[in-house]
Design a protein that fits this description.
Layout (H helix, E strand, L loop, with lengths): L30 H46 L1 E7 L12 H5 L2 E8 L5 E8 L8 E6 L12 H49 L7 H27 L1
Antiparallel strand pairs: 1-2, 1-4, 2-3
Helix pairs in contact: 1-3
Length: 234
């Protein structure tokens, strides 16, 4: 339809940089651009080399540590029968999947390896009545505790520490690259400011001089126009 104003279009973005542009001959390429490119490449290679090594070393150390923890837990913890001293609370949604996962702390009576009877608090399923018997892990002091670590849990925790160490190496490399890039950028800005301070006086003039020059040129154009009209009329 005639007279329809087209919708405004967003301004075009910067043109894409060609691949490996910091290493290509370019009159606008600065030494800091090349230095930053080489630094980024060096950091990338270092991260690729160090991250797997760090993950392997940390993972192996964590695996040996948690194996020792699991061995100690197996020696100091054991599964025993516990008798509830009172009823466990009932779940508000009986028969649901959430009820199967829910546990409530209840006072129970246990017997230690030495034959001593003592009272502790253990997590039991909901709805159990007093004098019900459940299996509970207890430590050497007779306190309810978690089951010893399994081989799967040991491997999972070791893998987690290995992954965290590799991520830490990558983040450290990214931080080094970012800080160095920031320093080089500040250096570029400082050099640009110094160059502009040296060049600016040759490109700029006071505002009053600009206005008076523009006024003189306008007056001269008007006078020339008047002379041309007068010559044509005569």
């Amino acid at each position: 339809m005639a007279g329809t104003v087209p919708a405004p279009q967003p301004p075009p973005g910067p043109p894409p940089r060609p691949l490996f542009w910091p290493w290509r001959p370019n009159p606008l390429r600065r030494r800091t651009d090349t230095a930053r490119a080489w630094l980024g490449l060096g950091v990338l290679l270092a991260v690729l080399a160090v991250a797997p090594l760090a993950g392997a070393l940390v993972g192996d150390a964590a695996h040996r540590h948690y194996q020792d923890v699991a061995r100690h837990q197996q020696q100091t913890r054991h599964l025993t029968d516990a008798t509830l001293l009172h009823d466990a609370p009932r779940h508000p949604e009986p028969g649901s999947d959430e009820e199967k996962k829910t546990r409530y702390p209840v006072e129970v009576r246990v017997v230690t390896r030495e034959g001593r009877t003592r009272t502790t608090r253990a997590e039991v399923p909901p709805g159990l009545t007093a004098d019900s018997v459940v299996g509970v892990w207890i430590d050497s002091d007779g306190e309810a505790t978690d089951a010893p670590l399994t081989g799967k849990e040991v491997s999972s925790r070791a893998a987690g520490w290995a992954l965290l160490s590799a991520i830490g190496v990558a983040l450290a490399g990214a931080a080094v690259h970012a800080v160095t890039g920031f320093v080089l950028h500040r250096r570029n800005l400082a050099r640009w400011a110094a160059a502009w301070a040296e060049t600016a006086p040759r490109w700029t003039t006071p505002t009053d001089t600009k206005l008076s020059s523009a006024f003189d040129r306008s007056s001269m154009r008007r006078q020339a126009t008047c002379h041309c009209i007068a010559a044509q009329q005569s």
